[in-house]
Amino acid sequence: MFYQPENGHGLPHNPFNAVVSPRPIGWISTRGSDGHDNLAPYSFFNAVAYEPPQVMFSSTSAKADRNGTKDSVAQIRETGVFAVNIVEYAARAAMNVTSGAYDKSVDEFAQANLAKAACETINCARVADAPATLECKVTQIVPLAGPTGFAVFGEVTGVHLRDDCIIDGKFDVAAFGMLARMGYQDYAVVRDVFTLKRPD
């Protein structure tokens, strides 16, 4: 099968997300200039550089109450900071709750019954029990092709690692079961890890 996206794929569901998978989930927490906290998962997320450490996520839809974008990007525009919380299998239901398109007045931490903790280097809340959190200062927000797409890049200024996730000196994603996004409504959990040594 071959298809050109502009002409449609002819399948019951769009296969694009299933082809580019699994994808890590950036559970993005933000705080608006009014002090209101927001939490939402984004599967267009990844690390992009080591020195300095940098990450990105992209938002590709909009809400009527946020002028062409979603709560996360709107609040990041106001404050210039965000936190990336890593999602474990045990938090899958709470993560799913926070994916709802709620009114901008809703605090998703409360909606999903999640404990908050303060970040250290930025004025933002984080998921207190997350296996890891990356505190980030925005470096750029890039408009994407399409009416509502924005890629947000940030430099990591602080890293929280949950103590029980450090095994033999390594951050062990299998120890807590890192959640990943597949296509459609599907997810995967990391449980099996193997090592390949590079030729050099």
TrEMBL record:
Indicate the segments forming the Flavin reductase like domain, all copies. Answer: 20-173
A GO MF term: FMN binding
Q: Name one Pfam family in it.
A: Flavin_Reduct
Protein name (Swiss-Prot/TrEMBL)? NADH-FMN oxidoreductase RutF, flavin reductase (DIM6/NTAB) family
**UniProt organism field:** Yoonia tamlensis
